[in-house]
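The data are passed on as follows:
___
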Amino acid sequence: MKRYVKRLASAALLGIAILSLAACGKSGPNQVNEKKVSFIKDAQSSNQRIWYMAQSDSESDYELSKDTHITQILVTGNGKATVYNMPDDNFSMRDIDKKNDKQIIALAQKKDKEHYKDFIDPKNDIGDTGGYIQTVIKHGEEECKYYKKHPNYLGGNKDPQEILREYRNELNYLKANEAAILKATPKYEKPAPKLLNAKVKTDNSGNDVNFEDITHRRLELEKDSAKLKHLKWFYNGVDVPVYYNYTMTNGFSLIYDKPVKILSEMYTGYTNPANDSDATFLLTKTTNKDTVSDFDKVGTKHVSEEE
């Protein structure tokens, strides 16, 4: 299904874009019907438009298909985009088939909340270093019980009972701070529209754009270290979830010269050569079988030429 025009032979993927979807909108479909669509120009319209950021790996030959994983859903409008993160790899192109705008927005809101709940859930905290406070305390209690029965397994030059007391003191310190750390866990934050802009590259003539860097802004959950005293036995520390505001740039070098049909829907947009990494797609639905995607032009608002 490689129905795209190659506009730059050796472009590298500059980032993984994660764009988004607005929290409100019309209940009916608002798909592209124009002959040509450019992302930034289209996003500056007051009309809502839903876009999808998707990824395909080597297992699917980097091709776009019904099973291609959607990482974010977005709605653009008035020059902005609102990012909703999908929580797992099981959400694919098949999940948006035959759904109208209202259904997709409701789905995006639901999935973004699921992403938040999954991230802060200590049951999913299986990292090798650190961990959420609940996980660290649980494992600490298990370790204490084990070494209380088998103190000689502690080893070292110190008295095993002294080591066990030190360990228990640090565990008690963590338990005393558990409530304060949990209180600092961020509440779910509803994504908001954020500015879009792009930089483009032109060919030697300076007239034809052959590459576009799209910059978007989004919220993302990450892990940070809890503010605690230095711990000797719990040296991996305690993690806490935090929200960060990210500004990310996504480079595209390929555009579609005709829509790609996935199940019952037609899509147009942008992609990249895989270059042994995941192929990234930025797509929107279209009702026009002759629609082509195009790079944004220098002179479009919030579009500048890369120096």
